[in-house]
Fold this sequence. Notes:
Helix content: 25-40%
Number of helices: 11
Strand order of the largest sheet: 7-6-5-4-3-2-1-8
Mean pLDDT: 96
Low-confidence stretches: none
Structural class: alpha/beta
Order of helices and strands: EHEHEHEHHEHHEHHEHEH
Amino acid sequence: MGRKFIVGGNWKMNGSKKSICEILGFLKKGPICPDVEVFIGVPFVYLEEVAKNKPDNVIVAAENCYKVPSGAFTGEVSPAMLLDIGVNWVILGHSERRHIFGESDCLIGEKCKHAIENGMTVVACVGETLDEREGGKTNEVIFRQLKAIADHIGKECWSKIVLAYEPVWAIGSGKTATPDQAQEVHQSIRCWVKENVGKDIGEAIRIQYGGSVTGKSCGELSKKPDIDGFLVGGASLKPEFITIVNAKSS
């Protein structure tokens, strides 16, 4: 069975009750191809409201969570809390968490482990900065990030992971890796998983591309054999998101 195309919208720290109503409006209007799995990453304060009002063919995900069930961790949210309000997907390891908030590879691995062990599906992000790419270190950096995840979870957990490759130099910059550049990295990621986790797991794992995807760039990217979907930032706040969701079927 082929890998099901998956498109996620990461709202980041954006949204208001008014704008979310508009976003839910175009999600309900669609149309959304039934062959595509769709999720939206929503700020904590709006998760429950969005979960209650979203269309049935859209999954709600948190944008972060911590590595323990509870405790003296001011400002953090646990998987247990998310599950308590019906949210069982989470985005972890996003470049903004790594580079702005200083989250280490090890911490992200620990967070992935705890989330999966508590029944969540994790969208785990990896990617390199511009300096790292220009220094020829793309694979070195991504493989290090993948290893930190693999070191914390067993083979049985990989079915609960979606990987997202996000070239940090492309996020929010309007720059997008060419389809060939993106495919090259996605292929390297898949090969790493095959060699270091398991061949069948590497074949089955879905790898999203997450570098400033737009309605114009999504079509060619979706044709590449190792690109299994998109993790979309700013464009997920606009009706253009529907075009991206349907890229594979258009």
